[in-house]
Amino acid sequence: MTTKPASVPALETHDLSRRFGRADGLAVKLHLARRQPVIHALDGIDLTIPTGEFVGLVGESGSGKSTLGRIAAGLLPPSSGTVEVFGRSPQGDRSVHRDVQLIFQDPQASLNPRMRVAEAIGEAPLVHGIASRSEIDEYVCAQMRRAGLDPAYRQRFPHQFSGGQRQRISIARALALQPRFLVCDESVASLDVSIQAQILNLFMELRRDLDLTYLFISHDLRVVQHIADRVVIMYLGRIVEDAPAARFFAHPNHPYTQGLLAEIPDLKQRRRVYAPVKGEIPSPAAPPPGCHFHPRCPSAFDRCRVERPALREIVPGHRSACHLNDVAAAPARAQTGEIA
Ligand SMILES: Nc1ncnc2c1ncn2[C@@H]1O[C@H](COP(=O)(O)OP(=O)(O)OP(=O)(O)O)[C@@H](O)[C@H]1O
């Protein structure tokens, strides 16, 4: 058997799109085809996450973050384009599924209320032959300890734990499958700020101890600010900016990103004053033509209304999808040095 070299990325997508609605088989069967709009949840996503990287994926509700996470975890097929996880297709090779585990926002919903914690954590490793019947109790205790839980409580039910502890149970359950890649979908969003910090610290510890790769989905830039190596911003199914975290916060390029940062008070002090994003995100069933962001963009010009901007490198490692970066198209902005 050939083994892939360690440098194979944890995630690699090319021109990845996912539509819901009319193109969906179920809608056709239910004769809803004419009434149901097509939703372009993902539209041409090119993203590579090297093994071991912690990527924060940020965007407003409906921008397609969860859809991307679910495709990476093999829970959803793409409509077009390619996706590879550790060099394998999640659709064609089910062995990928163990390597990627999803941790959701609401552990209450993702844990079976009638299942004791020991069973919730131990069930999958038994099925996959990771631990035998004689080993499983000690194996479960080890996962609980690693997630910061006292194994003495393993015969309790999820409702007997606090919200933060329940999220630790979800994490222990994910770790029990020995994943290499965690997709965390708003995993701290429902927790109090102090508990959020504890769970974020746990993710960092796990990363250090287990060499994990993370796709950390959040609608809140503040959450990813201190933990992500790289920040990727999505808007209506497209990536608009992708940069190493330090560069991202120091030199945000896309007007949408700048608007998001303008809403974070402690960052606002340090930076030139950007205009906060105005208005609502349009429906992904009827995205604006050209640059999807143009109706809300303070710097939009004619070209933005008709032509999709390419996501391209403005400096090595920093990609942005904005026509203002085209010096020929936006001489004024280039002259003021706003394009870093
Ligand atoms: N199974 C589905 N059927 C139909 N539409 C869907 C489905 N899943 C997602 N969508 C739609 O696709 C778009 C993107 O959804 P997605 O959940 O990926 O966005 P998100 O950025 O994660 O938003 P949120 O933070 O609200 O979850 C939304 O308009 C959503 O309604």
What does this protein look like?
The protein is of the alpha/beta class and about 350 residues long. The chain has one domain (about 15-335): P-loop containing nucleotide triphosphate hydrolases (Rossmann fold), CATH 3.40.50.300. It is about 30% helix and about 20% strand. It contains 14 helices and 11 strands. The strands form 2 sheets. It has an 8-stranded mixed β-sheet, with helices on both faces. A 3-stranded antiparallel β-sheet has the order 2-1-4, with helices on one face. Strand 6 (about 180-185), helix 8 and strand 7 (about 215-220) form a beta-alpha-beta unit. Helix 5 crosses helix 6, helix 5 (about 115-125) runs parallel beside helix 7 and helix 6 crosses helix 7 (about 165-175). The radius of gyration is 21 Å and the shape is globular. The termini are far apart. Mean pLDDT is about 90; it is low at about 335-340. Adenosine-5'-triphosphate binds near residues 20 and 66. Adenosine-5'-triphosphate (ATP) binds near residues 66, 219 and 284. InterPro entries: AAA+_ATPase, ABC_transp_ATP-bind, ABC_transporter-like_ATP-bd, ABC_transporter-like_CS, Oligopep_ABC_C, P-loop_NTPase. This is Peptide/nickel transport system ATP-binding protein. Keywords: ATP-binding, Nucleotide-binding, Transport. Its main location: membrane. It comes from Bosea robiniae.
